[in-house]
Amino acid sequence: MNKLHCHSVERNADHSGQVSPVDTITLDETDRHRRRLAMQSDNGISFLLELDAAMLLREGDILRLSDGRGIRVIAEPEALYTVQGRDRDHLLNLTWHVGNRHLATQIMGDHIRIRRDPVIRNMLEELGAQVEDIEAGFNPVGGAYDEENGSGHSHAAHHDHQHHHDHDHDHDHDHDHDHDHDHAHHHHHGHSHG
Q1: Which residues pair with residue 40 across a beta bridge?
Q2: Euclidean distance between CA atoms 139 and 10, whole angstroms
Q3: Using CB atoms within 10 A of its CB, is residue 194 exposed (0-12), middle (13-18) or buried (19+)?
Q4: Are 84 and 93 in contact (CB under 8 A)?
C-alpha cells in the first residue's frame, strides 16, 4: 500500500460539504508547528505531512489525506497562565511586556494565555496582573513573520527570551534567522541573532 500523504490543511472555518473527518490527531503547540513530518493519528493512521511552508496547525483544522480522508487536529492541553488586567489599557500594557520578551501569546479578548514560567508570572503580578494556572490548548498568534499574515516568512519558532539559560533547538522550517533588535538578556540558543 502506498504511504498516505497530507498536502493540504482545511482551516477551521467552514467544513460544510466536506467528508467528515475519520480520526483525530492530538498535538501540543510545538508539535503543531510543522511543514514536513511523519505523523500518526490518535487511532493509528500513519501519514506524511508535506506542506509548502511551515504553519501552525490549529484546533479544528482538517488534515486532508491523499486518499480523501480527513484527520481533525486537537490541541493537546498544556500548562499555561491566563493573564488578566484591571481594564483594557492595563491588559494592553501587560501584553506589551510579554511581547517584548518574545513569548508566544494567545490573545483571547479580555485576557491572554502564555506558557507557564515563574519568572514571568512574578513580573506580571508585580505589574498588577491577575495570573491563574490553567490547562488548555494553546494557539498563539504568529506575529509579523507568520506566513498567514502574508509575508511568506514563518517565524513562529519556539524560542523564548525571558531569562538566563542555555539550550539548543531545531526549527522545522527554512529561513534566515536574522533579527535586528537589542536585548539586555544573556542567553544562547544554538543559532545566531545578528
Answers
A1: 46
A2: 16
A3: exposed
A4: no
- Tell me the torsion sign for CA atoms 147, 60, 79, 172: negative
Q: 122 with 116: CB under 8 angstroms?
A: no
Q: Are 159 and 143 in contact (CB under 8 A)?
A: no
> Is the separation of the CB atoms in 138 and 29 below 8 Å?
yes
Predicted TM-score (pTM) above 0.90: no
116: which 3 cell numbers? Answer: 507557564
Cα 116 from chain centroid (whole Å): 14
In this structure, what C-alpha cell is assigned to residue 85? 488586567
Please list the rounded mean pLDDT of every run of 10 residues in the chain (194 residues): 84 63 91 90 94 89 93 94 97 96 93 97 98 94 55 37 40 42 43 45
- Strand pairing category for 46-56 and 4-10: parallel
9: left (phi over 0), alpha (psi -120 to 50) or beta: beta
HSE-up (13 A, CA, CB side) for residue 168: 1
